[in-house]
Write a structure and sequence with these properties.
107 residues, four-stranded antiparallel beta sheet
Amino acid sequence: MKSDPEQLDGRSYTITPVSTASGNGWWLRTFVDGDEVGYRVFLARTANRAESMAWWDGLTNDERTDCATYSISATEAYQRHLLDVAYAEAETTACAWMDATAFPALV
């Protein structure tokens, strides 16, 4: 999670956790010279049991061991994976925004 903004030519962004009635995810906020100019929320999809088990079955034993350190079930591990995917999407969007020559709106 990025809570300290990265800066480039007056542009910066933060990615912070968000919890809404619709689910958990990440809140990307973009700034120019300290003023917020846009935001987007990246929510993790909700895991269902069938998807979770298919994902779990595709993991190696080492990956399952890693998951066991922070999850008690395949569904919980898959939900955490989906949260990681949402974070990666937020970071990719932030990097594209930082690299853009114009300042595209996020919302």
